[in-house]
Amino acid sequence: MYLRISLDDERTGLGIERQRHDSAALCKRLGWEVAKVYADENLSAYKRSVDRPAWEELLADLEAGAIQGVACYDVDRIARQPKQLERLIDLYESKRRLVFATVAGEIDLSTADGRFLARLLVNVANKSSADTARRVARAQLQRAQQGKVAGGGHRPYGYERDNVTVVPAEAAVIQDAAKRVLLGETLISICKSFDGQYPTPGKSVKWSRTVLRAILLNPRIAGLRSYKGSVLIGEDGSPVKAIWEPIVSVETWEQLTSLLTDKSRQANGGRVDRKYLLSGLLACPCAARMSGATSKGVPEYRCTPDRGCGRTRRKAKALDEYVEKELLDYLERQSMEPVGDVSPESVLDRDIANAEQSLSALIDEWTAGRISDAVFFAAQARKEAALNALKGERAQEKRRQTMKAPVGAGVRQKWAGLTLPQKRAILFEVLQAVKVHPKPVTAPKRFDPYYYELIRRTD
Ligand SMILES: [Zn+2]
Q1: Mind listing the pLDDT tens digit for each residue in 193-206?
Q2: 11: domain range?
Q3: How far is the CA of 302 from the centre of ligand 1 (A)?
Q4: Are 47 and 79 in contact (CB under 8 A)?
Q5: 312 CA to centre of ligand 1 in angstroms
Q6: Which residues surround ligand 1, an ion (CB under 5 A)?
């Protein structure tokens, strides 16, 4: 086995261990016995002047017939200069029974094709640094899989500059925000109440919706490690636990993620509207969502020309009362409905376990060198996206069961004690939309439920 560690590899602290592990696995798979490990450290094959004692020893042993072949991580570990490679190729050409294998590819110096390919690769490696980028990416992933902190960047809100120690005052702010978001309060309303009360993140003077959302969506607050934008799954198939303390539970974080990234639940296209119960829920016949406004002091809902036809208007009071009554009737009936044998949640749990297993099997294949980096990263991204979607569903399911809509007797009493944002949160939880049907101009002016249709969520 030949290992070569460059300065870059050494800085990450993972280079030698990784090459040794992967190369040993390769030998085991091929049924080769490792006679000797040749390791050159902190040397660059790129600089011609640098001598490599282990490399010279390897060539001598091959020449003397002390070993029958070489296993290494990659051809460019052996040689990055065409001249170095030629010395090795000369040996393979004169001693036809020598064997050769690399973890990274299917290059075999014992065949003419392999020698041709190796020459080609070394010429390419000589000119490009793409392979360095690949090795760095892999080292980063390994760091991430160990749950370590990523280097650089700003201090994350809730943690000291070491990225590990929790700042209790800021952690309390995050916990407060999480609780209120899950209760249906809007980010903007939370930010307003935070200003002047709580320390702001980074250099910001005021709290903003975007910043708060980013803090709450960051898996780090749940003690999870992310990599390239998604939560990292470890080799055992479960999320990688970071070395820092969580501020909220994983379950809470999953609920937050599902709530904050669910576009269909963002009433009024994300705009705040705390005065009108049905803003963003009413769907105009033109399909645009209607918003609340007052006309001569009378609250109403209208389709605005910037988002729809701009022609539909409905008085708010009677419509609010009607939808509220329908909703409460529905929620009261809920407790009577029989519960099925298999809850959707346990089905989701099983699907998630399967997805995690499949991802971990993929990581195994890659670690063992049986699939290429290109195939691995593409497949990993797909599998992680599927897994995250399932987790989002499970979080929604949990939310539906635990938090939002009170059901059964006493619903009306609970409803009366809720704030408008909380009522709206429940409405959006239960209803997809309230369809507004066209009303003929000749129709009586009074409210008629005939022109409205409540569309329940079925997901
Ligand atoms: Zn319209």
Answers
A1: 898 888 888 777 88
A2: 2-145
A3: 8
A4: no
A5: 6
A6: 284, 286, 288, 303, 308-309, 312
